[in-house]
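can u pls check wat happens w/ zinc ion
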Amino acid sequence: MMRYLLFPVLTVLWVPGLLATAAETPPIVRLNSVGYLPNAPKVASIAARADRFDVLRANDGRVVFSAATHGPIKNPDTGESLWLADFSAFQESGEFRLQAEGLPVSTPFRIQDHVYRDPFRVAARSMYLWRCGTAVQGTQNGQTFGHGPCHLEDAWLDFVGSPGQKIDGTGGWHDAGDYNKYVVNAGVTVGAMLRAWEDFEPAIRKIPLDLPQVAPPIPEYLAELRWELDWLLKMQRVDGAAYHKLSTTNFGGFLLPDLEKAKRYVTPVGSAATADLVAMLAQAARVFRPIHAALASQYLEAARRGREFLKALPEEVRPNLAGFTTGGYGTRDPDDRLWAAAEFWETTGEPDARLELEKGLRESQGKVDADFDWGNVRNLAVITYLRSTRTDRDPNLVALVRSNLLSTADEIVRTARNHGYARPLGDRYYWGCNGSVARQALPLMAAHRMTGNEAYRHTTLDALHHLLGRNVYGRSFVTGLGFHPPKHPHDRRSGGDKIEDPWPGYLVGGAHPKATDWKDEEKDYRTNEIAINWNGALIYALAATLSP
Ligand code: 9MR
Ligand code: ZN
């Protein structure tokens, strides 16, 4: 029976031209509108009383699965009562909808082995579309997005004592909805993306990213990282220290980047940025070594110079950002130094780096965080330490950190289970929290690798389900993907071009301070901006779902 046709009015509200109307009425059935893997758990949240539900084939409405719901369950952060429709037992591939008796049918979704391949490609390509210092172009849903070469004057030295002089600071990725470039935020981004390569290389290699301007033999994914890494080399002073950022003095307008002509400057150096640069380049040296030995040596040599600077100056160097109102990314440096020691040791095996790393891990009692972002990269150090196959680790410390990792991963699993939309971050909502939801995949997948416990991988999938539609809005938080994605992100390219749709593949920051505070409005930079650290995390989480 084609039950969903009983609700033609609501179905009609979801045709693209009428989305503005639909925006005010979130769908009753909230699920990952991109889809599910056949052999993994599949749960939808229904925001109305429902005792039973059906899964219907999308093409003919035939009922292919029916079951009782669980509920009501209270979801405090949205103040709702929800009924859960668990159709995990249904493992057929195809396109489906879900409907509870008497309620409007859901948007269609797929069940398929490779359902996250294209989202992975689009999210990874979004980094390419963020490139600075070059022309970029990409097509999505029949529309072609692009801009000409931008910011070719990067960057002036006026704020570091050489007015009117320049270094070559071209290249890298724009940070976010703004076009500035910040080394600290590059850290957690590149760290997550290199970790994805180290964890899931065979699967990533199989996905063509279709990037223009990238030629073999370097795999496309690494070529994209190289674009940022080669820029980082330029952000290093001869003494090894890194400029904290490269930026205009104030945020610019909503113009395509090649039309932004305000002067851009490097700021003074900082020890957190320097440590992040060391970590990224040391990790990259390891990853690139089998592929491009000369490049790997260049990265390692720069990492070593950065490390020498840090060793000679154990006190924190806070960058002087006076004169700038753009992003601050101010952060204490101990976790950044810890991460630098971890990557440098893993790549070189040098004992003094291990001693520094193990000292730092002991001082923090081997802590592993359930929730982390650019301000705390300790987890990146922890994961590298635990993943290492080097034989000189302190076995007691390994045992402690490993047990902390597993209890943190268990805590994340529990948090997702106790949340009405299986949000692994629970009720924590802050600037960029959508990125943190995706980033939880790092400790989860590290725990999965160590134990084989599928609950950890399933919670990674929960994070993606939440971000792609199983949320109070019933909407995807990633531009160009899934049902009713963000239309008006705070992104200067999307606001500055003539195309109605925003640039594709970008995760918006998300609701805060309350679960219901997201606004799909361009001016709402607090909840609707995009940023490399959020996409880097999304790329990691999507990579974790790919089959090798
Ligand atoms: O992601 C950053 C968030 O954690 C901070 O609270 C916020 C305010 O400092 O800044 C966010 O980062 C923004 C950066 O400062 C400038 N580029 C856009 C970033 C995303 O909004
Ligand atoms: Zn640029």
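The two ends are 39 Å apart (CA to CA).
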